[in-house]
Structures are given as C-alpha cells and as structure tokens.
Amino acid sequence: MVNVKPQAAEQAAEPYLALRSSLDGPTPAARVLGAVILTTAIATLPRIDQRVAIGLLACVVAATLAGRPNLKRLSLRLSIALVVIGMLILPFLLSGQGERAVHLSLRALGAATVALAFTSDLLGAELARALGALRAPTALVEVLEGLALQLDSLKTTCVRLLLARRLRGARGPLGAASILPELLVRSAERAERVDLARRLRGYHYVRPKRSFARHDSWALSIAFASAALLHALARL
Fold this sequence. Notes:
Blueprint: H1 6-24, H2 28-43, H3 50-67, H4 71-94, H5 98-119, H6 124-133, H7 138-167, H8 172-177, H9 180-200, H10 217-234
Helix pairs in contact: 2-3, 2-5, 2-6, 2-10, 3-5, 3-10, 4-5, 6-7, 7-9
C-alpha cells in the first residue's frame, strides 16, 4: 500500500479544487469573504426603513447571483433559519414591540440569506481551507478540518447508539438526548486518535498559496457595492 502524506494529497487536489471553483462560481475564500462583507454591512446598519428594506432585497438577489447556490439546499437551510428567527422575535411580539420585532427580523433574515447564498454549497473541508486562505487562526482551521473528517463517522455512531437504545426498550426524546454525552466522549477520543496519527505521519498545517482566483473579482465587487449601497440608503 502506498503511503501518501497529507501535504502531497492536498497539493495533488489543488488543480481539481481550482477547476471545481471555476465551474461552480467563486472560490471558497471569496464566498466566505463576500458573506462576511454583506453580513457585517447588514448588522451595522444604523436603521431600517422602506428604502433599506428594498436595498436588502436587492442584496439578497445580488448575493444569489454571485454565489450561485443550489436553490433546493438554500431553501432548506433558510427554512431552518426562519424558524430560529421566529423563536428569537417571539418575546418582542408577545410584549407588544411589533415594530422592533419587524426590524430585527428583517436584519436577521437579510444577514442569514446573504450568508447562506454565498456559503450553503461549501463542504466542511472547503470552509476550513477558505478560512485558512483568509488567514484565520491555525487552531480554528485545524478544528474545522477535523470536524469535517469526523462528520460521517459521527453520523454512523449516532445511528448505532440510537438503534442500541431502541433494542433495549428506550423510547422518547429523553432516551435520544441521553446519548449525547457518550457521543461527545467517543468523538473526542476519535479526534485525539486522528490527530496523533496525522502528527506521527509528519502532518502539519500549510496555508494555501493562493487565496483568490481571477474570476472572484466580480463576486467580491458585487459584495462591496451592495454593502456600500445599503449604508448609503440608510443615511439618506
């Protein structure tokens, strides 16, 4: 069996990742940076009125055109975001602060939509590489890489634990929730083993040589222009 070091595997995968990015739209680093630019712009808006709400809608359309996400995946994740936003604004509605609830929901929904439009198609490994290209802390990048590698294993372990509990007669949501401590312990043990194996094979994190590609310029231009337009509308 041929032993291939992780660095060599990553270098060999770079042409494929570059081709995939050029076909699918902006590179992962450009997607993450575009999402950060627009969500920061929305979060720092001084006020939200009718003009700004129209500007938010235009930003959502622009982000969708720039990110070119899978619409089915985007709608699924956006529905989850809508549920979370609804739960967050419910106390304001119950206390009679309807106008504040509308403003908060517009701000949160706009930020969530543009962020998902840019990043909903990213895999865990691509997100980690994008953060590394944007000079995020090495520890954070390595944690995300490890999490991406463990997701499939965690899903399999969770299914096995749930099946074992059902075979033993456990029922209801409390029985399902009780597996979380064991799942966390097993995932931590596996993460330690994977980290030790990688270090024994000589692995150390190397930041990508290239952060962006030429075809990222139009997507980032759209993000910067949309952010500037939003703040210009809010100050009229």
